[in-house]
């Protein structure tokens, strides 16, 4: 299973659109790994996790053939992770020439929000909706997905995701604080070949536990996975989903996480499980 980080920023992007802070000033000056689009992932060539307002830019920058996509997995319905406008343009023949359906897997709350903001039925957009049931594995062809309730956006059905394919299992845990006991329970017995954990607030709120994580609670999340046997000390762990309010550019994040055996993700990074 090949995974590419299409975006590694939180909602505002880095540099943020109304940028006045030092992190954004430095990011614009340095470019490269400092430039972060809104969070999204490409799995192999046929699956995208989250599809936000930078999806067009990401598809061009990373040469993604959207005509062969089979499915999109959504973690939650916040606009930086789900941009209904992009799907509005799937209407055919009004805006695009679309002939094949794609599967959209998401919580009931996310699917409801999707319809509310696009203003169209799924069939009009050539979409097959598949509702996540928390704690239950979902099979879509050769891919399995286990959604686990996240500690984020109460009432909006946020999920972290275990994604399994070809005998490899990936954890995607962006937009979450430390999990509730019931969510940790759902992860018992699941082992991961690679884990991705957020650190949205980084040094801005280093001990944040609810809604998002800071640098210290990101490590705490990793250590809980170790304690449960979900990962080992040799399992690759990537840190992702950074806000400019986290008060850290790329090098500062690396300086903190590298000694803790955690890798700071950047846009375009591709990994193989």
Task: Give a brief description.
The protein has 273 residues and is α/β, with parallel strands linked by helices.
Could you explain how this protein is built, in words?
The protein is an alpha/beta fold and 273 residues long. The protein has one domain (2-272): Ribonuclease Z/Hydroxyacylglutathione hydrolase-like (Metallo-beta-lactamase, Chain A, 4-Layer Sandwich), CATH 3.60.15.10. It has 7 helices and 14 strands. The protein has helices at residues 22-30, 55-61, 84-88, 108-118, 181-187, 215-228, 250-257, and strands at 2-7, 40-43, 47-49, 71-73, 102-106, 127-131, 138-140, 143-149, 159-165, 168-173, 194-198, 237-240, 263-264, 270-272. The strands form 2 sheets. A 7-stranded mixed sheet has the order 6-5-4-3-2-1-14. Strands 7-8-9-10-11-12-13 form a 7-stranded mixed sheet. The mean pLDDT is 96.
Summarize this structure as a short list of keywords or feature phrases.
single chain, 273 residues, alpha/beta, Metallo-beta-lactamase, Chain A, 7-stranded mixed sheet
Note the topology.
Blueprint: E1 2-7, H1 22-30, E2 40-43, E3 47-49, H2 55-61, E4 71-73, H3 84-88, E5 102-106, H4 108-118, E6 127-131, E7 138-140, E8 143-149, E9 159-165, E10 168-173, H5 181-187, E11 194-198, H6 215-228, E12 237-240, H7 250-257, E13 263-264, E14 270-272
Helix share bin: 10-25%
Radius of gyration using CA atoms only: 18 Å
The CATH C-level class name:
Alpha Beta
- The averaged pLDDT comes out at 96
